[in-house]
Each structure stands twice: as C-alpha cells, then as structure tokens.
Specification:
The protein has 225 residues and is α+β, with helices and mostly antiparallel strands. It has 6 helices and 4 strands. The longest helix is centred in the middle third of the chain and has 17 residues. The protein is flat and about 80 Å long.
Length: 225
C-alpha cells in the first residue's frame, strides 16, 4: 500500500528545492565585481638623454604638465643621473626639459634630484609627481575555476566568471582624465547668452529655433577640376 502522506511530503521538499534561488558567489554587476576607486599614485614620465629634445618628447612633456595642472598640489620631481661620461650632455638635456616645463606654465614647483647612474642602464631623465588616479581595486587575471572542466559542476551555475569585466573596468579607469568625475558630478557651465537670444528671437517670429546643419560634398567627378 502506498503511503500518500509520505509521497506528498517528498513532493513538497522537491518543489521547495526547485523554487529556491541559487546563492550567488560573485556580484552580477561589473562595477561591483571590479570597482574603480580613487588612489594616490605617481604620474611618471621618462625621457632619454639625447643631443636635442625632439617633437615627440615635447608633446610628452606638454601632456605631463597638463596632468600636473589639474592638481598643482605636489611638486614635480626631476631625477637626473650624474657621474657619467656624458655629464655635459645630461646637463644640456635637463636644461631643455626645464625650459619646456617653464613654457608649459610649471614654475616654482620642480625639485631636482641628482642620483648616480646605474652602470649598464640607458641614461634617462625621469619626471614624476603624486596625483589621484582611477584604479581598479581587484586584480585582473584571476581564474579560481576551470571553465572548461567536466569533472565538477563549478561552471554550471550560469554566473559570470571571476575575471569577467575586469579588462573593461581597467580600460575605463585608464581613460578617466579626472578621477573626481567618478565620485561627484561637475557643475553646469553657464548658459550661452547669444544662443538663447537667437532662439527667443526665432520663437517670437514663429520660426523653429533649432539649428539646421547642412553639408555639401563635392562630386567625385569634379574633384580634379
């Protein structure tokens, strides 16, 4: 004889197990799995010692100075190698770097550090200053589970893997020019008075205040004429 109460109890237990939500070990949101935070880090630039300061080096110095102007809270450290057979060339290159920094608006905020050159290494003049940067808190490249393993059920839970989104978050952190934008919004810029007056005048005349942009491209046949 079949024990009906026992069968009902078993069915209730099975249905309860199917209805229960699986426990998520990792957050589903990429921002919570690999959060971006503001951290103090060095902005570093290195320039080779050469007979002149080429255009690429000048562009790098300009970008370095632009990053420094965002804070202006820390001094720029310039490290110059000494006691080398090319001391005269090193001093000349340092003077060119200093003049370039002055042209970029960096004044009174440079600290020169002279240090002996390391034998066998390329002579470089390095610049650095401490600033706030956007960095991913969690390390990338962490694979605690074998996604292709058939010996366990660890990959059967239909959840994002541990490293998912880390490269994306790192790319966003590197491209963030001002990390303060991640914590608070910027103030709204003032309204364009000229554009506002033009739009109001068009409305009073019963015209559409929007701007119609047009583009006229030359024909291919008449490009050489």
């Amino acid at each position: 004889m079949i024990d009906r109460p026992l069968i009902l109890t078993t069915l209730v237990i099975l249905l309860a197990g199917c209805a229960s939500e699986p426990v998520s070990r990792l957050g589903q949101d990429v921002a919570s799995r690999h959060p971006i935070a503001m951290q103090d880090d060095y902005q570093v630039m290195s320039l080779p010692v050469a007979a002149q300061l080429d255009g690429e080096s000048r562009m790098k110095i300009a970008g370095f100075a632009s990053a420094w102007r965002q804070d202006r809270s820390q001094k720029i450290e310039v490290r110059m190698p000494i006691k080398t057979p090319q001391d005269k060339l090193v001093r000349a290159q340092f003077e060119r770097v200093r003049q370039q920094l002055l042209s970029e608006g960096v004044r009174g905020s440079v600290r020169l550090i002279r240090e002996p050159a390391i034998l066998g290494e390329t002579l470089n003049i390095s610049l650095r200053f401490m600033r706030s940067k956007a960095n991913v808190v969690t390390p990338c490249g962490v694979w605690p589970d074998d996604l292709a393993s058939a010996s366990s059920l660890s990959g059967w839970d239909n959840e994002p893997y541990a490293n998912f989104g880390c490269a994306y978050q790192t790319m966003m952190a590197v491209q963030t020019a001002d990390p303060r934008d991640l914590t608070s919004m910027r103030a709204a810029s003032p309204a364009d008075g000229e554009m506002r007056a033009r739009a109001l005048a068009a409305i009073r005349r019963g015209q559409d205040p929007s701007v119609t942009w047009g583009m006229q491209a030359p024909s291919i046949g008449g490009a050489d004429q």
